[in-house]
Amino acid sequence: MTDQTILQMKNIVKTFPGVKALDNVTFSCRPGEVHALLGENGAGKSTLMKILSAAYRPDSGEIIFKNELFKHSNPIAAQKAGIGIIYQEFNLVPHMSVVENIFLGREPLIGCKLIDYRTMRDEAQKLLSGLGLTIDVNQKVKNLSVAQQQMVEIAKALSMNAELIVMDEPTATLTDREIEFLFGTIRTLRSQGKTIIYISHRLEEIFEVCDRVTILKDGKTVGTENVPDLDKDRMIKMMVGRTLGEYYPDRSTARKGDKVLEVRNITRKGVLNDISFSAYAGEILGISGLVGAGRTELARAIFGADSIDGGAVLIDENEVKINEPLKAIRLNIGFATEDRKGQGLILGLSVRKNISLAILPQLIKYGLIQPKKEKEVADRYMKILKIAAPGIDYPVKGLSGGNQQKVVLAKWLAKDCRIIILDEPTRGIDVGAKAEIYNLMRKLADQGKVIIMISSELPEVIGVSDRVLVMHSGKITGAFNADEVTEEKIMKCATGEVA
What we know:
Elements: E1 7-16, E2 19-29, E3 34-38, H1 45-52, E4 60-65, E5 68-69, H2 75-81, E6 83-86, H3 98-102, E7 109-110, E8 114-115, H4 117-130, H5 146-159, E9 164-168, H6 176-191, E10 195-199, H7 203-209, E11 212-217, E12 220-226, H8 232-240, E13 259-268, E14 272-280, E15 284-289, H9 295-303, E16 310-315, E17 318-320, H10 325-330, E18 333-336, H11 340-344, H12 351-355, H13 360-363, E19 364-365, E20 368-369, H14 371-384, H15 401-414, E21 419-423, H16 431-446, E22 450-454, H17 458-464, E23 467-472, E24 475-481, H18 487-494
Parallel strand pairs: 3-10, 3-11, 6-9, 9-10, 15-22, 15-23, 18-21, 21-22
Antiparallel strand pairs: 1-2, 1-4, 4-5, 7-8, 11-12, 13-14, 13-16, 16-17, 19-20, 23-24
Helix pairs in contact: 4-5, 14-15
């Protein structure tokens, strides 16, 4: 790695109606470095990268790439220049093969008409082998794991001779083992002289794999630092203006009330094994465990999304039969799934329509939704949760991840649920939005609601929960109060050891 720059973005300005997304942003990268780009949702990261990919044009400023003024007018031209962007949601065709995806639109030809499949297969195999992945390049992409699909995206970028690759939240849906594999691939690319711009909300990853970090806040450059010169506390303060000690809510207000929910001996063959626990008014109950432990499956069973083979659910000491989500909703149970885009929201609808989804029966009169009441509800919860959107009729798909999550929560708050299950509530959102959601959870618990939080982030589980249950292989293997739980105890239980 040298002091020479491969990319310089100087005094970039971009304004949208009513919003200055980028305000004289300056950003540069060196050849062969992994450079983190951090900031809260709405800080300007995505806009800056869309300008780099030529999806947007800046209002002013200039870009120097490989010592030449960057004047490309569209993303295809930017790709040909050597810039590859791997988005959080992959740009692959599921029903086409790996090799077809890698060379889509750029297939080598024999003569003028016939596709040279042999050359394509050989090149695809070579690219993937160089990334440490051995798979059949003829199989359809839909049959690959998320991590394998990510490797296909990287191979596609390399097939276009990308010298600078942007990775947007690359670990959001990966297991720990897959993350280690990705980090190994990133180090290989760095050793080959490739430059990686790494965007992530998981700050621990920055220390693991990045050389330098540039932080944006409110569309402006806060600064660029060498990663070894930073600690997590300083990094958070640069991003959000407060320290790690102010990150989690004060638990001194917590008051454990009456037992509201009881789960007795829930069993689902091969998935859940004789699970029992209780949850009380006024508490945040954290559920931890490794991927595949059965945490999400437990939540889905309680909510009636998945059937069970045995056991019972009781509310206020009375057994209830919940064999579909609609019955759970009628019992004032809300479930914010980990897949907010696929299962928690209807992306094509507005903020207003999404917030009102769970209370439509209350808004209908003479067979019609009353728009005035619907507007009042949406306005109220937009203000309560501080949802940053141009208005209640703005489409949810246009919001940041943190604001989309707030819309999901608003839907269940509007229903006034007594029991709210949150599955990975802060996945893929920035530290500022995380702190807001933690404080909201505490506030709801203080109002007497039951909050059940499933999370893979141990500091989050420990920092927010009043009690913690740990799962392993479909069983509860540990239970701890807030004053006794540690990461070591959780990991022992999560791996099947005795705490």
